[in-house]
Amino acid sequence: MTNLQDTVTLNNGVKMPGFGLGVYKMEDGQSVVQSVKAALKHGYRLIDTASYYHNEEGVGQAVRESGIPREEIFVTSKVWNDQQGYDNTLKAFEDSLEKLGLDYLDLYLVHWPVTGKFKDTYRALEKIYEEGKVRAIGVSNFQVHHLEDLLKDCKVKPVINQVEYHPHLTQEELKVYCEKENIQLEAWAPLKRGGVFDEPIIQELSEKYRKTPAQVILRWDVQHNVVTIPKSVKEQRIIENADIFDFSLTKEEVKQIDSLNRNERSGPDPDTFV
């Protein structure tokens, strides 16, 4: 990626922005509307929400009121755990579409691999995809064994696996597997909610490049070819987060940040959460 409008090509040929705005824990109403509008105004074209976030209405309002053609904005949503199963997922998708006030979604994901349900849930995504209501489908929080199980009998390969990914959780085995299977990795909580800012190497690189610790980490994501969706409600922070295309980390610096891995999560473990 060389700028905020650069895209990655997914395994079904759809082009997706490589950097965007996540809206987890943003309150619906003016908070999320203003944040999404600010992001779109400053060049963001990827907006990531979910039914669980309870802010799809505000996201859709911001998209519609932005003045930017709908086809230029890439909107992702996800089906939550208590909505899973084939019929429930079909209904959940229609509910999300209605709340967003959109005619289609660009990407729809299975939010978590709910044991005994995620395959039926994904079958529903395949039907939605075949009907042309969504441009791409994928998964979130899937480990290698979940993906192996899904790939045994799915008809449409997931284009994305959106997972927690940051310098304390580099998920190398999963990353290699996804690359081998041509499934794009996408990072949620890329900044570990600020939990990696105090690492000496991050501080050192921050001073060297005159960038914030967040910008250093987000640059590291981009150089790993991981789609990245940092969240912020503040316009200045939204601008800052995207100001990462005027410098590059060296290969050695990328490896130094890689070495911070602790296999440490800030969110739930997919193997025990559902």
TrEMBL record:
Residues 29-261 form the NADP-dependent oxidoreductase domain. CDD domains: AKR_AKR5G1-3. Gene3D superfamilies: NADP-dependent oxidoreductase domain. InterPro entries: AKR (IPR020471), AKR5G (IPR044500), Aldo/ket_reductase_CS (IPR018170), NAD(P)_OxRdtase_dom_sf (IPR036812), NADP_OxRdtase_dom (IPR023210). Pfam families: Aldo_ket_red. PROSITE patterns: ALDOKETO_REDUCTASE_1 (PS00798), ALDOKETO_REDUCTASE_2 (PS00062), ALDOKETO_REDUCTASE_3 (PS00063). This is Glyoxal reductase. It comes from Oceanobacillus caeni.
